[in-house]
Amino acid sequence: MPMQSPTPPTAGADIPSAAGMADDSLGVVVGRGVMWLGLNTLTARLVSVLAQIVCAWILIPEDFGLMGLAGTVTGFLPLVEQSGISEALIQRHRHLKRWATPAFWLTLGLGCVAGVVVAVLAPVAAGLYHQPQLVPLILVLAVGCPLQALATVPQASLTGGLEFRTLAVVSLLTIVVQWGLAVAMALAGCGAYSLAVPPVAVAPLRAGVLWWVARPPLRFGAAGRRLCSGWRSLLRDSNQMLLARQLQNVVVQGDYVVLGLLLDERQVGYYFLAFTLATQTVMLLAGNLNAALFPALSAIRDDDAHVDRLFEKSARLLAAVSIPASALLVILAEPLVRVCFGAQWEPVIPLLQMLAAGMGVFAVSCAASSVLYARRQLRLLILLGGALAVLFFATIVPAVWYAGAFGAACAESVYYAVGQGAYLYYAFSPPRRSPRRIGGLLALPLLLALCILPLGPAVGWWLSAAGWQGVVRIAVTTGLAMLVWGLFWRSVDPRPLEALRAVLRRR
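Above: the chain's sequence. Below: its structure in token form.
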């Protein structure tokens, strides 16, 4: 993507319609978006992982546990304050001048309401979990609700305009400042507040940069009041999306709720760190693909064949990378935790291994979810979300009761690996839906993952005999896994390698 000008054009200006693009052209747009977001997010993830390692050496597991419990209250509220409005704006990007003003006031108002609700729920959560220190922690997070809502409109403007490079740079800046502040606060002895305050503190900075870059067309005065009359239409179009998102978020936060009710905060802290580490690969790969895929698919959602082809290409590439990467994380969990986090975090190892096992398929299902949102199949998303939420809680409650945090990791992994397959099935249009097609997407990546798993014990045994472990084991195992990955796809199915080369060649 070309470099953005210092003074960007009005974000509400029309962009070339994706509906008229060929598969290859639209694929390149998505690919370049994934590449720019991926490169910057890779840097951001490295920064965040290094900062988490530093914080883990300074803080105690109970601090991470308190943050995980606080997230069960605040995790639902960002969805309430956006209420699907971001997605609605992306799908109406060509008419952003009409919708930017009501969307701004609506998200800001909902953000303020969300902040008040979080503050009211703080003592309730503290009593429920028997953790009085949660009250001030949650109140800090409540301040961030309206501040984070300020970024909704400019971010939707840039996403709808396919300005992925700009979004990636802003995201990197935010991550660097946020984790730099977190480390400084941890060194200053701020405990759990080291994890809670930085996101709130950087929210105004992020919103200010996005507004300066995007320049969404807000109207004030009489013109603004006339435009704001459309807020009911905007909210009506987004309320089903809100319900679908919330049902998915029930699962995201549900494990922490169950753990907080049945276990102490130390066990929640172990699980919190394991889950954070396990999702790094998913956020790096699937998060970037979704950010690029959703606006592109929204523009062609009425062309089923076009959507199916683009999704299948994206899902095949994502499966080829994410499933083997998850297998690599399974075998690297032990040396990574021992080298980077120390002996006090060793209980994280089995949790991380179990969670990582299911994350590869989950990454692919994230792309499928984007297809369903782009096609506005919201009733289907609500039905799937509700059914899977019931299945998840029916599994995780007895699992935690009998096996503690490891039981939660097992239930979560099974849910992500098996339950999320339903999204893959329904992402295709009815004529192209079949279990065989889903099997074709996943079979080879799963076979490659099985080839990578034996590398862990083999390399560990060999290096132990030579007296080498730790960092050397991590480096050798990663290098061998990458070699196996490249040789496998080159000899069995070169399409993932060709897709990567096409993206890099046309960057």
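Confidence is low (pLDDT under 50) at residues 1-29.
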